[in-house]
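Bench notes, bay 3.
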Amino acid sequence: QVQLVESGGGLVQAGGSLKLSCAASGRTFSTLTMGWFRQAPGKEREFVARITWMNGFRRYADSVKGRFTISKDNAKNTLYLQMNSLKPEDTAVYYCSAQGDRNTWDYWGQGTQVTVSS
């Protein structure tokens, strides 16, 4: 089992920045492939970014590429999402997730709200 707790959300003006954190426990963090997802009101949850445990390869949704950066600190068991040049359409609840043994997104945090005002 993996427990995930997000933090760092809040209200920011368009063009501003926020850094989300996700503290993980319950399993060796360095072996986890982890990611960020988001869900806006009335929309389905969507992929934002992921980082693989083996080689640190990163992948981003086209909508955030060049603005968001995903990273993980294995010593601190923490995943991050640095969000720059935020837009009102980035407003959503952001979720941290980790893959299980079958490479599916099995573990989820409770989410943190990000609101970008225009």
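Next record in the batch:
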Amino acid sequence: HLVESGGGSVQAGGSLRLSCAASPYFYARYCMGWFRQAPGKEREGVAHIDGANVATYADSVKGRFTISKDEAKDTLYLQMNSLRPEDTAKYYCTTYRSYYCPAGPTRDNNWGQGTQVTVSS
């Protein structure tokens, strides 16, 4: 399964880098992504990167978050800068079984257990 790490508590304006150890589910040529879920809210997609390394972001994080992957380490990353209290959530990484990123996850997605990010004002 996938294992996320790097979450924690920071003040607004701070930074965190999340990691997702994805072996053996790391498929460099497949879409991978990060989702988050805050208490009482629906899960939302944060960032995705497809098999061509084209990244897409939710409007709420554009310009602040960067998704990347290290094929040598089978690891997916999410660099989060200029964090805001509204970024507080549990963050999950996921891998797809498609080169391009579909509109949403499917039953074939693999998921991690999540890592908590808390941003205080």
